[in-house]
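Q: I'm writing up a methods section and want to include an example of the input and output format. Could you take the sequence below and give the corresponding predicted structure tokens, formatted cleanly so I can copy it straight into the document?
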Amino acid sequence: MSEQAHISVSGRIATLTLDRPEARNALSEDLLCSLNTRLDELGAADPTVLIVTGAGKGFCAGMDLKLVLNDPEAPRRLLTSLARFLLRLRQLPMVVLASVNGAAIGGGCGLAVACDLAITHADAKMGFPEVDLGVCPAVVAPWVVRKVGAGKARRILLSGGLMTGQQAADLGLVDFAVASREELDPTIREVAARLATGGPQAIRATKHLLNQLDGSLDESIALESAELSARVLATDEARAMLAARLRA
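A: Here is the clean output for your methods example:
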């Protein structure tokens, strides 16, 4: 298996890159395994900031639908792996900053929301179209509620569809949207450099407290949500709607 995620470290800033550009960085079991392996490598570096981004023009297109439809057991494995990875990402002692450089759809948008901070550009495509596909967005729902509150989460997740990066910023799904894609990288570098000046022990303690206050570390909710998503995804309705989307 070729590595589908890469990590680089420069001083107190590390960058984790999803690297399946030919599939718009869609989430597969191999990609999630590679992401976890890369996080294992962070121990010695002990950065203060971790930037998460995608190779190519997209951030993450969500679950790989071809894999989901070709293997009936794949949805449960994939959703459980995603739930555990998002928990692990939130547990990291450093500030995790999503650089949403392009489309962030479904689970990919959930990945951005689970980061401590997220910045995108105004024209990026973001959102949770799961209900449009007969799928339940349960695996990402806890993170959306924590990010924007229960009321806005209902509006976003029940409405489905996609939105622009600017609309995502207006709703609070991301923390800021720059005007253009070209402005994103320098903005991310500037924000990361500012965050990296913080005291590592202070950041670790503050993040741990915030995680306790908002229930981010509740593994049972994460795994129950993944199981609910998997059950709905296994229904004939969901599989028919997903197959139709792939044929379109």
